[in-house]
Design goal:
By secondary structure, the chain is an alpha/beta fold. Helix content is about 45%, strand content about 20%.
Length: about 220
């Protein structure tokens, strides 16, 4: 397994003024809406729900932030039971009844609690060995599949971020973290190697252009 670069992201570190955090979370919602975040997650989930013939399901969204992707899932699947989880409790939406603050590596749930565990723009925050452990934990909690929606490490999204900053970013946190995220993101073969190291054998990695997103569906 290759060793990816690793950078600390400011939103994770804490300490930023609350109004700056609010602006950064709004930036993330805008980025997910227009740059593939919603589309990639909903596409993975729809395919797995159809594959299993499910009428309803449970989903744990890890690293949910302000819950915009979970809201998109709820709008598409009104009968789904969705639990939001984020390291920072003040990031989570107050109007969601199922939410918990916890670290991705220490989730307080029993094995096979959820049909699906999803994580969007989260796994790249971890160095490779920690990413393997986190993905293995997600797999223990999911009865059916783990759904990873992340970034592809590539020069083009770095250039795009710099050019589009006036449109998509209002916070210095987002500008710093966006570039750090792309620099420590995955190449397709790296994400596949992490899935293998985490013990998955039935999985698929896809590239999603023009957003330079990667998805991993890792089935139990």
């Amino acid at each position: 397994m290759s060793v990816r670069p690793h950078f600390r992201e400011l939103l994770d570190a804490g300490g930023a003024p609350p109004e700056e955090v609010a602006r950064s979370l709004a930036d993330l919602r805008r980025i997910n809406r227009w740059l593939g975040g919603r589309r990639v997650l909903l596409g993975m989930l729809e395919a797995e729900v159809d594959r299993a013939g499910l009428e309803t399901f449970s989903l744990l969204d890890v690293g949910a932030a302000s819950g915009d992707l979970a809201a998109a899932v709820a709008a598409r699947f009104p009968a789904a039971r969705i639990v939001l989880c984020d390291l920072k409790p003040h990031h989570l939406p107050r109007n969601h009844c199922h939410r918990i603050a916890a670290a991705a590596a220490r989730l307080p749930f029993r094995a096979s609690t959820f049909d699906f565990v999803s994580a969007s723009l989260l796994l790249h925050h971890f160095p490779d060995e920690e990413a393997v452990a986190v993905l293995r934990l997600f797999g223990s909690l999911a009865r059916r599949a783990v759904l990873i929606n992340d970034l592809e490490r590539h020069w083009f999204p770095l250039a795009f971020l710099r050019l589009s900053a006036p449109v998509f970013t209002t916070s210095y946190l987002t500008r710093h973290d966006g570039e750090a995220s792309v620099r420590q993101a995955f190449r397709p073969e790296e994400l596949g190697a992490i899935a293998l190291a985490a013990g998955f054998r039935d999985f698929s990695v896809r590239r999603h252009w023009p957003w330079f997103r990667l998805s991993l569906v890792a089935r139990r």
